[in-house]
């Protein structure tokens, strides 16, 4: 008989505890609803969510800094390999890799800037043609086209402070505004990377000024030629994408081999970094890897240049 009252008491305690929790939840919900409706609805959500914009902004700054200095990611990778292998050789390799990776990244950035500049030259020719068709004078048409391009660059997410024509744009603007030697300014601007089409624009300008030929017609043909060249480059780049993929796969095969050996328990880092045979294999393999990557990259870049 003593077991029944104890069971009843346990059920009563559980019922009371559940009722108390339910009442607390209901009360908290009611109070929160009343605050949102009448008292301080704007304050509590602001306090709750005000941290998120700051966190997102800090994350954006960290991401932007990491993008601007991507070559320094070699250092933590080298430190990790040095800790796992118990050797300072990965640290030396990481220190050597930082300037090489920086040079490679700068080369890629320069190629992208050259592509954007070539596209900007074609767009500039089209803009000048449009202004000439609208009845403007050649100098005024060039001035308006350059101003429109600068406004588009400034309104973009990552504006280019030098505009469409790079450092020589100020000279071209001055020549167009004050009646200077526009072809000479265009030829000077054509020395920049990706701006070779400006030399054709200067030739069209010179012929139109000296011989009285139609500038709009020449610039229109020049724009068509530049766009066709860009289309051919994009097609060639798409055809060479498979070759670049092969180069990347061949470069990652040694890393995959090290991972497979570590998964099988062979301790490849210890063998490579702490035994004479492993050090010899590491030196020969690093040399062959670098030579293979250089040779394959040279072949693919030769195809792109052709």
TrEMBL record:
Segments forming domain Type II secretion system protein GspF: 162-259
Compartments (UniProt record): Cell membrane
Family matches, as InterPro entries: T2SS_GspF_dom
Keywords of this entry: Cell membrane, Membrane, Transmembrane, Transmembrane helix
One of the Pfam families matching this protein, by short name: T2SSF
Main location: membrane
TM region positions: 7-26, 77-101, 240-265, 277-296
Topology term for the membrane: Multi-pass membrane protein
Protein known as: Type II secretion system F family protein
